[in-house]
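Subject: for your reference before the review

Hello V.,

The reviewers asked for a structural picture of the protein, and I figured it would be easier to keep everything in one thread rather than splitting it across files. Below is the amino acid sequence we used in the manuscript, unchanged from the supplementary table.
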Amino acid sequence: MSWHPDWAGVLTGQPLQWIISGFLTTLYVSVVSSLLASGLVVLLLALRLGGQRVGRAFVAAYVSIFRNTPLLVQLFFWYFAAYGALPQRWRFYIGDNHPWATLPGNVAWLTPEFLCAAWGLTLFTAAFLLEEVQSGLNAIPKGQSEAAISQGFSDWQRLRSVLLPQAVTNAWQPIAGQYLNLMKLSSLATGIGFSELTYQVSQIESYNAHAFEGFAVGTGLYLLLGLILGGLLTWLGPKRPAKKRQQPRIAGLTQEASAEGHHGV
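And here is what came back from the structure prediction:
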């Protein structure tokens, strides 16, 4: 007895609505977390480059903690421990129904799952983004920073106007890779009941036993989203200025010597 995939079981009716909702939820949480992580990286860089020992120690501890603990464990902590420690009135308000807190596609963002997933992904990704940007900073000649200081730039002006633009340009490819990793790692939020794409696809298996078709569609959507985001990051990202090819100095000296010899003759 041969088996044939039944794509209608996942591309129609309730399963299709689940897939669309999960796809949009994954997209929204990825965009929100990417923006928050980018802003957090700027603050951490300012602390690290500010010259204060306390600030550098805080950033070092932050990076060590979030880079060396599993993301799933962090999500469990934020959802089951940190969120549960909030005042009861706050938790009741967040858990209530808020029509104004709904994104296009009927995706609610003011929920414990969305907030904890976005918060956890933000803190985790920022620790990795920070080190990528730092590698870009390390590639900048020290003369750039010294020139900014000599011109009277403050630490914040030096970071914003001189160092950060060059650092992002130097390390844009690994930075873009971290943003893509954030999108893929959002699938771990299914562990806290967050209804992103993986969670919604998993529902199809218990709904009509179309596990193969459901996860095949889910995998294809992750691939599609990754390609689109990767293309956008490459297109919108900073471009390195084209380097002009210069004639080797040795060849130039040889030509000068030949010209002098010719005139001497």
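For the response letter, the relevant points are probably these. Residues 8-264 form a domain with the MetI-like fold fold (CATH 1.10.3720.10). Strands lie at 102-103, 107-108.

Happy to draft the paragraph if you're swamped.

O.
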